[in-house]
């Protein structure tokens, strides 16, 4: 009797979950792998990663922004003053994405699906995304290979992040590892992007909302720029420009350009669907819109926690007729008791309330990076031509230098063009080994390049778990 | 000749049958054996027939019978059943004696009944008197103070909110700590059936048990140790609460009714906040202390300058927001009608109940309608049929609570400033010009909706068949079907709905549970001295939960509140979770000479929550009891020690209250990007995951003295091991942690229960009941990380650590205020020695436990003629409670004057000049001293004593009520939570807080004062 009972018992108590599926059952064809790739993009959308912080947080760490404390409800009030531990925190999200990339890259070739083009595309996307995430990890938690400080707490600190390229499927895969060096991580990123560029289709066959060939070359060029391999950077920026349908926003279009979806210049843009990504209180609590628009008095009259404004130093960089100035507006907020501030309308709710797409790579950035690489190779006139090409479409008429001073001019042009996007300013200063002269209003002063705060702290729990292999960054 | 006549009569009767049978009448009077007083309401039935009656007010009865002889059966609850041979008598007077020999009571286990003497486990029983007509929205609230070893803490005072119950302490760190509920033998859905409140709705959980009508309950039995709970396997490791509902009784139908109505107010007033004048005085002072102003004039000018954006008092408004949020007209109502009756072959109980209770905050209330039918039929000599059906409809209007939501009225009253008006001149709520971000709670209560409607059908049906005289088969099926509909609407004009032009979310949650038991009972009497009872059980249970939700924003007009009419739907969700259990069980009881008992239970259980190889667990228990008062050597003490019994039990059970499918690596499907669905690995899994286990010892002594005093003393020791803890993985794997069976904890303590009939005179009676529990909890093992540090749940105020009670408070020790500088002080290390005014340098120490270590209840009842007075108190001590939001409300100027929060009135006692001895440090605008950061300044002694219930009533004399056709009539006045004594004078909140010890922004506990009437005819 007991035997009989036991058989029926096991049937009854074998309950498979209905909302989740065990991996073996689920990942069987290209369609299911596509869903896994989709999840990687979904992780990029996390607000503490590309959903917001990768655009804005670095701006507050550097000199393009000032945060009005009374308006911000605690948002970026620590990073604007570069207080200890106020920094990027992408570790957990990044590695969750990487594990998914690894799963796709390691196993997609094994599935029995005749659609080879689809498999190549998905693998290419996973390679691109793994490169992007490792690049972000490397530049947030470590120094650039050629810019390890020789003084200060980080002198000689060549540690980058943990480099995992195999999926974690069982206990043995989860063994603790040691931080790789910058060169090892950059080498892996380089390899992934070369492969991604080979596998990915062009943006006109895909969409700029997904990884594509042009974006892969542009990112590879950017890696070389950070690595100071100028000639390789130029070659890849050229490949990027040859493999894209992006076009410059025309003169007079800068402010409205940020309201079109996708942006004309985008190589790779993360698409946010209002009903999915900023539903409920997510918008007001977390969106870039909420962080950068005055509460109540913004163009959409929405409540916000907006305290992040362009710094006076940034505003002073524009000549009077520059189109890009038109994206700023002066307004009080409904809680500022009549006190006015200058606000940026770059995040204008183009995709609905609190909803804006995030531009990860766009044409102006690529042009300016290529110009910088040319200038570093001594081709100042080639560089100046590119910068002028951009500036013409922005109605900026001041002459562009034709000598070595163009390198600093490009840095300023990047501020004017790319402020509040991609945390470019923070990473530009860091990769060039330059100190940060904070906005005067922050009263922070200057942060030297060898200051420990150039690197983000690694989550403490992670260090506790693996103190040998994963030492904390200096001084944290 | 006479003989011949009799014979003829007998022959005639045989011929003519019953119709013409000679009818005769038997009458008599039933009195109490103790004082000779008449006993009304006693059932009198002729055995084996349906004819019977009930004694009247004077104890008189009259039955008609055609039978020549037979037996009269007299029954009354609380009295020993009496059987009397009728013979040929026409008058039979009897005396009935009370059944106070509790040791012979029956224990309901849910798997049949056991005689108390033979029961070796630990249990407590609560009778109907402690439950019925109590103004508690959920039945388990009646258990507080009435059951040794059971702690109950309301998660919220919103009527119908889930109650936290801990039986003999905390048994798990991450898995469930809630006991299993069984109604009439069927494990039922408990806890709540609504959506995950923390993440989605921000309202208190609605208890599924709130669907039960208190007045349908006959008794509640709480099983506490392994001997009792091994019966229930992994479901029972946190104790089992068995509810038995009322059944029919043989005799003429009795119709009972009750009506109760009363007022509801706050049990504890809550903290007093600064009034406007105090607030302004402190605002000016704080600006001066911060160096922003040199004197009061400058401070006043600063505040008056609008560019500074500081809230400013107009010199007139003085709003007490606590009064504003209080519902002054809060009421409680309870009406019931029930009927019970039957014969010795079949009986029934039917009832209809209505309950309504307002919460003390505006806008919150609960309403319940219940219907019940219990029916029992002895279909044949061998076949018995029993069924019970309960239906209920419950509507609850709740509020935002649990956190400092801007729309939470309990946050509003702490955070909103007295300088802001609650109402405009025209009487409408003021929603403009509010200094803080909070929303006007009056407007929110009038315009937002937090509504739940819960419908429940509960049925259990059993059939038992006597295969052989000693062999009985029983099959029992129980189904429990609960549907909870929810609607949350945020209005367009003021509050959370403004940014989106209104927002609405609606959820539908269905929970279906079935449980099927098949039982075989066999009784084997070896000889006079040796007897065995065997029971075999096969039981399956399955639970299926389904939920769906929809929501949207953007409403075109006021009055549209459902997602259907939202301009932009943006929330669709639906999921289902199932679990199931399968088990076989064997029980054996051995009785030696009627006073030594041994029993053993083995249960083998499979549970879908675990991986295939770990699904089955074996649980067992042994127990023994010895009624040594029946032994010859106790003969000399028998005259005063009327009964005594010692018992012991040991058992091992599991706890399966862990997340579903925690063992599997899983992919989740909730992600999406660019309009396409995503899959992501959501769980790493652990195929080795198994039950949490507990091994429990229990030793008990039951005594009865002079047939007046009964007492029970128990010692228990429960070791919970293989506790599930989330062991961190390196994030670089893509996962944060993994559940493992690791960790151990011990609960041990004493329970004492005493009940004494101090006076038993005919006219004056006095009964005292007292119980208390002493409980010690200690974590004994935890996993360690690479540095040898323990890994356990921890937060900014607590830490799970070996050698400490679970979730022990862990924070810096407050050392008061520096009388020279007005700075806050903490100890650098421990609780004495060097001081620091820098919070970051303060050392962390263990600061006690959130779980009470000593608690209990005391009940007194006096009866004089028909009048009675009963009072119960509940007391609890040994724990500390933490003021979660004092960081804002006791911030010494950090938040009080820039429009974030108001401050406690106690903040007025602050340091002003060197030499001042004050409770609070120097009051500084934007105070950077971190004086209100986590420390024992915010931790209070949780000791309290509460007058849980006091009732004064009068049973109208039967001579009066019989004239108007009643059997009985009782009027009373009842007060609940009328008085609360709190030891710590600084603790202004209600000390009865959630089991985790955090004082949160929840609806407060209720005080009720009601009048009631009940009767039968």
From TrEMBL, chain B:
Keywords: Cell outer membrane, Membrane, Receptor, Signal, TonB box, Transmembrane, Transmembrane beta strand, Transport. It is a multi-pass membrane protein. Residues 396-978 form the TonB-dependent receptor-like beta-barrel domain. It is found in: Cell outer membrane. Its main location: membrane. PROSITE patterns: TONB_DEPENDENT_REC_3. Residues 119-240 form the TonB-dependent receptor plug domain. It holds the Pfam family CarbopepD_reg_2. Residues 1-21 form the signal peptide. Belongs to the TonB-dependent receptor family. PANTHER family: HEMOGLOBIN AND HEMOGLOBIN-HAPTOGLOBIN-BINDING PROTEIN 1-RELATED (PTHR30069:SF29), TONB-DEPENDENT OUTER MEMBRANE RECEPTOR (PTHR30069). This is TonB-dependent receptor. It comes from Chryseosolibacter indicus. The lineage of its organism: Bacteria, Pseudomonadati, Bacteroidota, Cytophagia, Cytophagales.
């Amino acid at each position: 009797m007991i035997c009989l009972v036991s058989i029926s018992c096991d049937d009854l108590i074998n309950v498979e979950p209905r909302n989740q599926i065990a991996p073996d059952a689920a990942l069987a064809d290209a369609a299911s792998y596509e869903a896994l790739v989709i999840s990687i993009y979904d992780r990029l959308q996390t607000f503490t990663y590309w959903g917001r912080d990768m655009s804005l947080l670095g701006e507050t760490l550097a000199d393009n922004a000032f945060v009005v404390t009374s308006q911000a409800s605690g948002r970026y009030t620590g990073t604007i003053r570069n207080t200890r531990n106020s920094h990027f925190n992408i570790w957990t999200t990044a590695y969750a994405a990487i594990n998914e990339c690894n799963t796709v890259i390691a196993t997609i070739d094994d599935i029995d699906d005749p659609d080879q083009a689809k498999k190549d595309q998905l693998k290419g996307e996973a390679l691109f995304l793994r490169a992007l995430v490792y690049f972000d990890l490397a530049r947030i938690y470590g120094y650039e290979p050629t810019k390890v400080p020789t003084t200060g707490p980080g002198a000689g600190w060549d540690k980058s992040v943990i480099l995992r390229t195999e999926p974690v499927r069982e206990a043995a895969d989860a063994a603790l590892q040691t931080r790789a060096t910058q060169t090892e991580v950059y080498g892996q990123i380089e390899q992934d992007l070369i492969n991604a560029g080979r596998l990915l289709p062009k943006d006109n066959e895909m969409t700029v909302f997904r990884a594509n060939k042009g974006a892969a070359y542009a990112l590879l060029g950017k890696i070389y720029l950070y690595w100071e391999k100028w000639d390789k950077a130029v070659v890849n920026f050229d490949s990027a420009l040859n493999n894209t349908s992006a076009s410059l926003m025309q003169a007079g279009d800068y402010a409205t350009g940020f309201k079109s979806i996708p942006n004309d210049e985008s190589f790779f843009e993360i698409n946010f669907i209002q009903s999915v990504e900023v539903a409920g209180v997510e918008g007001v609590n977390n969106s870039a819109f909420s962080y950068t628009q005055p509460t109540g008095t913004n163009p959409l009259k929405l409540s916000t926690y907006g305290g992040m404004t362009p710094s006076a130093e940034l505003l002073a960089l524009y000549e009077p007729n520059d189109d890009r100035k038109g994206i700023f507006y002066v307004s009080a907020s409904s809680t500022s008791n009549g006190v006015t501030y200058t606000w940026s309308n770059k995040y204008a709710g183009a995709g609905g309330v609190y909803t804006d797409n995030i531009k990860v790579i766009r044409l102006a950035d690529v042009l300016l990076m290529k110009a910088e690489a040319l200038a570093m190779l001594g081709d100042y006139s080639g560089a100046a031509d590119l910068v002028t090409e951009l500036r013409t479409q922005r109605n900026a008429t001041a002459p562009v230098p034709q000598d070595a001073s163009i390198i600093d001019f490009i840095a300023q042009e990047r501020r004017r063009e790319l402020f509040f996007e991609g945390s470019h300013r923070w990473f530009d200063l860091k990769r060039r080994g330059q100190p940060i002269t904070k906005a005067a209003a922050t009263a922070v002063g200057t942060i030297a390049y060898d200051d420990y705060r150039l690197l983000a702290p690694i989550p403490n729990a992670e260090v506790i778990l693996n103190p040998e292999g994963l030492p904390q960054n200096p001084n944290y | 000749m006479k003989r011949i006549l009799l014979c003829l009569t007998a022959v005639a009767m045989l011929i003519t049958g019953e119709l013409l049978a000679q009818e005769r009448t038997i009458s008599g009077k039933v009195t109490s054996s103790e004082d000779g007083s008449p006993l009304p309401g006693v059932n009198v039935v002729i055995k084996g027939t349906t004819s019977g009656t009930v004694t009247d007010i004077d104890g008189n009865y009259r039955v008609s019978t055609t039978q020549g002889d037979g037996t009269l059966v007299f029954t009354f609850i609380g009295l020993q059943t009496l059987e009397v041979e009728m013979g040929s008598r026409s008058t039979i007077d009897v005396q009935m004696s009370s059944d106070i020999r509790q040791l012979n009571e029956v224990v309901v286990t849910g798997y049949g009944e056991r005689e108390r003497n033979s029961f070796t486990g630990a249990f407590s029983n609560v009778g109907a008197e402690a439950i019925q007509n109590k103004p508690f929205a959920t039945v388990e609230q009646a258990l507080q103070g009435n059951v040794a070893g059971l702690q109950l803490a309301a998660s919220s005072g919103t009527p119908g909110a889930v109650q936290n119950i801990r039986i003999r302490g905390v048994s798990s760190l991450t898995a469930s700590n809630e006991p299993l509920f069984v109604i009439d033998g069927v494990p039922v859905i408990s806890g709540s059936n609504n959506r995950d409140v923390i993440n989605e709705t921000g309202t208190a959980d609605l208890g599924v048990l709130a669907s039960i009508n208190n007045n349908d309950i006959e008794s509640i039995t709480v099983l506490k140790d392994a001997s009792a709970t091994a019966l229930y396997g992994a479901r029972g490791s946190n104790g089992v609460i068995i509810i038995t509902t009322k059944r029919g009784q043989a005799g003429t139908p009795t119709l009972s009714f009750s009506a109760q109505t009363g007022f509801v107010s706050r049990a504890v007033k809550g903290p007093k906040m600064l009034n406007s004048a105090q607030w302004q005085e402190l605002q000016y002072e704080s600006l001066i202390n911060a160096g922003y102003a040199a004197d009061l004039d400058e401070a006043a000018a600063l505040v008056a300058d609008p560019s500074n954006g500081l809230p400013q008092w107009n010199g007139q408004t003085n709003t007490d927001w606590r009064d504003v949020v209080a519902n002054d007209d809060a009421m409680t109502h309870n009406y019931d009608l029930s009927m019970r009756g039957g014969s010795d072959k079949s009986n029934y109980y039917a009832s209809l109940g209505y309950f309504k209770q307002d919460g003390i905050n505006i806008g919150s209330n609960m309403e319940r309608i219940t219907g019940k039918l219990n029916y029992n039929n002895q279909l044949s000599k061998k076949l018995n049929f029993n069924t019970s059906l309960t239906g209920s409809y419950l509507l609850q209007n709740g509020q935002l609570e649990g956190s400092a939501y801007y729309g939470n009225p309990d946050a509003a009253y702490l955070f909103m400033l007295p300088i802001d008006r609650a109402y405009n001149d025209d009487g409408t709520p003021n929603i403009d010009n509010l200094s803080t971000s909070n929303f006007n709670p009056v407007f929110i209560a009038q315009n937002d909706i937090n509504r739940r409607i819960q419908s429940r059908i509960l049925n259990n049906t059993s059939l038992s068949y006597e295969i052989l005289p000693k062999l009985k088969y029983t099959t029992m099926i129980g189904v429990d079907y609960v549907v909870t509909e929810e609607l949350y609407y945020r209005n367009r004009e003021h509050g959370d709905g403004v940014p989106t032009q209104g927002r609405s979310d609606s959820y539908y949650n269905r929970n279906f549970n079935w449980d099927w038991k098949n039982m075989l009972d066999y009784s084997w009497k070896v000889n006079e001295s040796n007897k065995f009872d065997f029971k075999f059980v096969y039981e399956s249970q399955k639970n299926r939960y389904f939920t769906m939700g929809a929501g949207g924003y953007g409403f075109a007009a006021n009055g549209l509140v459902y997602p259907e009419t939202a301009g932009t739907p943006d929330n669709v969700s639906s999921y289902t979770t199932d679990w199931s259990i399968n088990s076989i069980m064997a029980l054996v009881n051995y009785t030696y000479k009627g006073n030594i008992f041994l029993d053993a239970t083995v249960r083998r259980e499979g549970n879908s929550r675990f991986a295939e190889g770990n699904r089955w667990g074996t649980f067992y228990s042994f127990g023994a009891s010895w009624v040594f008062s029946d032994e010859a050597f106790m003969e000399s003490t028998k005259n005063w020690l009327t009964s005594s019994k010692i018992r012991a039990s040991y058992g091992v059970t599991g706890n399966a209250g862990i997340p579903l499918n925690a063992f599997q690596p899983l992919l989740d499907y909730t992600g999406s990007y660019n309009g396409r669905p995503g899959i992501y690995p959501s769980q790493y899994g652990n195929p080795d995951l198994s039950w949490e286990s507990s091994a429990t010892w229990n030793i008990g002594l039951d005594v009865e003295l002079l047939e007046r005093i009964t007492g029970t003393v128990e010692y228990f020791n429960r070791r919970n091991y293989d506790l599930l803890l989330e062991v961190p993985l390196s994030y670089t794997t893509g996962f944060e942690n993994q559940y493992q069976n690791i960790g151990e904890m011990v609960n041990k303590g004493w329970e004492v229960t005493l009940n004494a009939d101090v006076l038993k005179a005919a006219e004056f009676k006095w009964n005292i009941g007292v119980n208390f529990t002493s409980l010690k909890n200690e974590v004994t093992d935890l996993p360690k990380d690479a540095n040898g540090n323990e890994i356990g749940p921890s937060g900014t105020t607590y830490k799970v650590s070996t050698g400490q009670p679970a979730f022990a408070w862990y924070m810096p020790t407050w050392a008061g205020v520096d009388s020279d500088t007005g700075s806050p002080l903490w100890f650098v290390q421990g609780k004495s020695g060097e001081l620091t005014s820098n919070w970051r340098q303060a050392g962390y120490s263990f600061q006690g436990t959130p779980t009470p270590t000593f608690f209990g209840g005391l009940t007194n009842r006096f009866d004089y003629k028909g009048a009675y007075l009963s009072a119960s108190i509940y007391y609890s001590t040994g724990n500390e409670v933490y003021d979660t939001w004092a960081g804002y409300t006791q911030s010494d100027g950090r938040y009080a004057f820039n429009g974030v929060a108001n401050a406690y009135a106690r903040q007025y006692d602050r340091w002003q000049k060197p030499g001042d001895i004050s409770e609070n440090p120097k009051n500084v605008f934007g105070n950077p001293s971190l004086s209100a950061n986590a420390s024992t300044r915010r931790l209070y002694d949780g000791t309290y004593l509460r007058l849980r219930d006091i009732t004064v009533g009068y049973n109208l004399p039967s001579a009066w009520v019989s004239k108007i056709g009643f059997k009985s009539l009782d009027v009373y006045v009842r007060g609940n939570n009328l008085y609360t004594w709190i030891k710590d004078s600084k603790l202004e909140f209600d000390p009865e807080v959630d089991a985790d010890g955090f004082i949160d922004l929840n609806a407060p506990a209720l005080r009720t004062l009601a009048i009631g009437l009940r009767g039968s005819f």
